[in-house]
Amino acid sequence: MRSPLLVGERLYLRAMEAGDAEVIAQIDAAETDTFMWRSRVPTSPMEHVDSITEMYKHQPPRYIWLAVCLKDGDRFIGNVGVVDIDWLHRTGETASQLGPAEVRGKEYGTEAKHLLLEYCFDRLHLHVLTSEVDEPNTRSAAALAKQGYRPAGRRRWADVKDGRYVDALVFDLTRAEWLAARDAWRARRAAGVTPR
Amino acid sequence: MGSDATLRPLQDLRPVYLLGSRVYLRAMVEADKERGAAWLDETFPVNAARAEAALKEEHRGWGWRRSSRRLAIALAEDEEVVGSARVSSHNGYRTCRLTFVMAPWRDDADALRAEALELLVRWLRDENELMVVTADLPADERATIAAAEALGMVRNARLREWFGRPGGRVDCLVYQALNPRWEVRDA
């Protein structure tokens, strides 16, 4: 493991490095799913280098993206982050992107998100987080619910999908709720129950 | 503050369509750097040099090509800058989000913001034809919330315990003005 910030059972999180930009662009190019966003977009390593470099220019940062790596083989498989951080009100919006598709469906996303939430609540001492998904993205909405997020409403006509304007579903998660969800998740894993 | 001779030419910058009874909104000008604490939403203290740098950064590029545009909220009576409103969009101004900063020393900030919201929503929804105008409002800003509801804005989300206040926290209420002139095939 390379300078891990948080370590889970199968994954660890570390700071993003400029060298990750190439892999992120490759993950974007290999994307097979289309339901999560309006469309797929080819990205350049240059724009990811710029984003990563920009993140470290500000202290405290305005957004934090962390690299998600498999402990086995030390493979980078995506990132999780908190953006629009308000350091006074102690809030932020979480997001994640794991890929390529072959790494999905193995609970890596849930484990990475739990590590991110631990970072946000226990290290940054944020008080409440939000997250949004486009309404057709039922998989991500279900994942948020499983991680303890609660429905907070919607933002109307947020994007376009299949010829229609679709809403963004809004979720929030307080620190107290996270602690309860984390303990339940840990208990299930200790009991050998694979959360689905 | 209104007797400041350097502010007199600002009367020429008053948009006739963003003028209310107590406040008006106008483009930011270089002289606003002297009142950064009234309009710049930064975590730490803002001096004139920092405010000037922020103004320059925010004025790169032309008009609506920028993804964000800040307008000064000034008193109609004497030009005093009492806050700012930022109009942000990530989709070419099909929709936008409003963010307000009010001078911390104004006891009437809520009422002034309420009037600014009325001016902005009418301008953005009814003249600029934006589909959705969104404002994330703290639940304790009652005058602004009343103005939003009077404008026909609908509360579509509530983020719990979002804003810190002395001794507690308040929710964030997400109000949205949907443009009725758009014919939208809902999902």
Structure description:
The complex is a heterodimer of chains A (196) and B (187). Chain A has 196 residues and is an alpha+beta fold. Chain A has one domain (4-190): Aminopeptidase (3-Layer(aba) Sandwich), CATH 3.40.630. Chain A contains five helices and eight strands, in the order ββααβββαβαββα. Chain A has an eight-stranded mixed beta sheet, with helices on both faces. Chain A starts with a strand and ends in a 6-residue tail after the last helix. By secondary structure, chain B is an alpha+beta fold. Chain B has one domain: Gcn5-related N-acetyltransferase (GNAT) (Aminopeptidase, 3-Layer(aba) Sandwich), CATH 3.40.630.30. Chain B is built from four helices and seven strands. A seven-stranded mixed beta sheet of chain B has the order 1-2-3-4-5-7-6, with helices on one face. The termini of chain B are far apart. The mean pLDDT of chain B is 92. The A-B interface holds A 87-91, 127-128, 130, 135-136, 152-159, 161, 163-167, 170, 172, 174 and B 43, 91, 95, 131-132, 134, 155-164, 169, 174, 176, 178, 184-187.
List keywords for this structure.
heterodimer, A: alpha+beta, Aminopeptidase, eight-stranded mixed sheet, 5 helices, B: 187 residues, alpha+beta, seven-stranded mixed sheet, 7 strands
CATH architecture of chain A: 3-Layer(aba) Sandwich
Count of β-strands of chain B: 7
Q: What is the total domain count of chain B?
A: 1
Helix/strand order of chain B: EHHEEEHEHEE
| Top-tier CATH class of chain A | Alpha Beta
Largest interface: A-B, 27 and 24 residues
Q: What is the CATH topology descriptor of chain A?
A: Aminopeptidase
DSSP strand tally of chain A: 8
The ordered H/E elements of chain A are EEHHEEEHEHEEH
Taking the alpha carbons of the first and last residues of chain A, their distance comes to 27 Å
